């Protein structure tokens, strides 16, 4: 296999011959599984978990391949290859997800081994992007760039990725298992609503350790994770994770799918869960599971800072259109003279998270020109160029605008998260994408969006909550009511340090009324807000009553 | 049912015995209740004894009995029910069990290598199973990224070359 | 995906649907027993014949042709009653290519 030349400064984990050999073997294994399925040697019930562990779903209209973007980090050749795959095996598009992955919606089973080979050419794969196993670990899209970072979470995300890859004991878990890891005190990864949320930090001596929350999650039973450990020393990191997974694999519910996530076990066992995990850890031959400092150092070398130039922070140009974009999209960087840029995949009326092949190529080019060839995928379905010189921002903005990638709406009401919903997803009870499109069109006016201020709307097409609606300021859940699509609205959720599950505001709205309902909610906020107050703050201060009144009083 | 060891079929000397039938001569695999009830008498038996450990029972619960046993049979009630992987690993790692660990139930070739890495020694395979398919599945991926119980050769970082025999 | 058992007997004409094993694309089957990409190409079963139709459809699963077959009830206009099935018939309600 010809490995593509990776730009020298893109800080992705660099595969060596061993990693490439592993990927080739894994593809051979999947090729064999497909052949056995087509020959009838594997039943669909047997094959389904195998294909899921290779990211392959059967959706409403076709197979969907979900490709892993480990912790959301990509280099330019990888993004170009994704564009090639979108053209060759999909309809010229890819769909970025809240798990920092990318999905191709129109694939054929018989083409998948070849697609996996194309991915392997750029050291990518679809391993464990689905199935009842440890999924792609997510982290902060500003890792290595954010001024408030204490520990680089990519290092430990990569260690978790390797450790969980085809883990012999944890590949047939009761249910899927999701890690998120942050390395900064400000939680941008929603760590409290993951099966395991890891906050990497440092003690007074400067040593790395991990605060561990376990049993958070959304879906039918939304729960905030419980703190299991305050500071797990680095050397014990993998051993403690083993211990948690051992308890879960042994005791997690196996029959009722709605009770099979670890959050239910943690909730039901309470303090006893901690005792069980401690007991596992204490019996373990700890030496065998110790995380060696040399291994950490070797992996950390992959994520060394790129060769930043010595620059000063500088004022940005005055051009009003540029300034509006910069205000929404540009974020401070820890290196003077640099900035991180979020690229909106939420054009007004567009499909949240979709990018065309030519847009992907354009972003790859711009990343090479302005960001050391590095790109990130954010969990709100946007892209990020982590390390851009401030002096390049104007040129970058023009480059993005030429490809419809400069919508200045990051963090605003039209920066909507939406799962695929019933337009693609076999599990859906209602559509989500067209609801997102119509809300975005209703609030198209940018001055109005800025006036409303930071406001997160998340939409899921069923109770599985892939759109994270529970933790949105305004959450929308599509359900089926006697064959009609109706939409429940929750208010006041949050996915950050003050994580909270939104509260259901009242009866659901029809497909034709949901946009008006959102409009009413926003008008109510505007009428009651204190100066500078965000929607969620107003809601927390005044409570649900004024919103209920405005939404339902008329009848 | 045919028995697979080290990628090949081999004769199975063990008989699985239902409770309340007289024990045949030779190696027998008993249920948990019978083993518990008759442990004192069984200790004096000459032929080897095995236990069919139910998926919901932690090996720790049978630790005092392990000294009697030459075999523990684990069961996958469904192909996607992986409790046996944790049971096998615990038997070897926590309890130092050195006898045969057998995987039974809905085992598919794609489990094979991982079962071996968790300490399983033999697999009951369906009638007519082609051992070549099982053997190929066992060998296809021979790199692992984590500690396990097979005799793996360390490579750099977390990686090791698997010896899944 | 295994076939979902229908809890309620059909009261309207039914066809059977599933996805092609190889290509994943939507397929329809009627009294002819053939799997077709177009609903219009198949003849619905009478409601009383739904059980017999299901048996025929499941043969398609056993022959590695289709996956996840189930009955789809049709209305007087010959189109599926359920919104979900109309979406499967027509493709996504949104136009990705237009972006
Ligand atoms: S939330 Fe439901 S509809 Fe949306 S992608 Fe997840 S499973 Fe599908």
From TrEMBL, chain B:
Pfam families cross-referenced by the UniProt entry: DUF934 (PF06073)
InterPro entries: UCP030820
Protein name: DUF934 domain-containing protein
Organism this protein belongs to: Paeniroseomonas aquatica
Organism ancestry: Bacteria, Pseudomonadati, Pseudomonadota, Alphaproteobacteria, Acetobacterales
